[in-house]
Protein 1
Amino acid sequence: DVKVTQSSRYLVKRTGEKVFLECVQDMDHENMFWYRQDPGLGLRLIYFSYDVKMKEKGDIPEGYSVSREKKERFSLILESASTNQTSMYLCASSLLGAEAFFGQGTRLTVV
Amino acid sequence: GIQVEQSPPDLILQEGANSTLRCNFSDSVNNLQWFHQNPWGQLINLFYIPSGTKQNGRLSATTVATERYSLLYISSSQTTDSGVYFCAVTRRSGANSKLTFGKGITLSVRP
């Protein structure tokens, strides 16, 4: 079974903090994705990566950066957390053009 | 970008009833998936179905790629079927395979 693991289920951070959300997959997938989910807005793509050290902006990259130093790990970084980044964050991975699998999600609250 | 529309946005059923959830998309796709979001927020894979028909227990799905829609059928619904159902597609171009989601269908099954 494919396993995508996000480092935290729940996270509370202060405004202005630098926040790291980690995602690890165990199936040697090329693609990895970060989405955020907000009520009424559905899932929106923040960034994705199709190979080590490769990244592309999604629909809402502002305020975020990413890092992919190893194939199995994709990190989402909030450089200076703000209250409007309070959200559910979901990580996914897939082979090129194939079925995607999601982690359990991280509920981030910025106070 | 590609547009994904799901209908109806909300659905209330009595336990034991059948239902059909629809997903329309605006362009050719090479990947279509149906997910169920559980109460804890995780997206559970239901079907990977870029075309054709698949069945898994009480659930089945059909995608008619030429007409740009997919249907998810739930038969003999149970309270545990409650939650949000998402359709997501990958456009038929490029190697990056990012998934674009619909807004979701919220299903409530009453005992």
Note: The mean pLDDT of chain B is 93.
Protein 2
Amino acid sequence: DIQMTQSPSTLSASVGDRVTITCRASQTISSWLAWYQQKPGRAPKLLIYKVSSLEDGVPSRFSGSGSGTEFTLSISSLQPDDFATYYCQQYSINPWTFGQGTMVDIK
Amino acid sequence: QLQLQESGPGLVKPSETLSLTCTVSGYSISSPPYYWAWIRQPPGKGLEWTATIHYGGSTYYNPSLKSRITISLDKSKNQFALKLSSVTAADTAVYYCARRVLGMAYFDYWGRGILVTVSS
């Protein structure tokens, strides 16, 4: 299975900060990467697919980049609604696998 | 507006079979171009894809569960189902049903999830 490793596991930030989360794959996954946001007690919400394509309705402050084995999710100016846990997911090779998550909390 | 809703028992005994149903509204599950999937999340842990079914009926399973898991469609009820046999405490999780896009295996719509606890 492809292992997806996110860093950091927890990130403390303030409203207005630029935030970057990294996701590394154990082998190349080309551009087959998605990002999700999950709030406590809620289902994950798709933010980005194919590394950098924003899902409909997702604010433009979210962006994704990378290729091969290293990818990033950036939030240009953190908003109160963005405090959540973020997961990456590879869909290059079955079984599709997720990172362990990065919790973004209030500094 | 597409909606997915999980249902089933919240408590299952060890060694028994976990059975869940996802009711889809706002779209026919037998129509292209989507797949339908189950993803689970143990309490306080990350996400694990378990199974996917194509609108035409082809199935795909996580190899770690393949000997115990079955996914199926009930087109007459616009539902799809998950069965997981010989459960243990390690199968305790929130189970989400979700929609997968054709050609790319990410999940764009999710149900709210159902907590299933395996305990005697």
Note: The first strand of chain A starts at residue 4 and ends at 7.
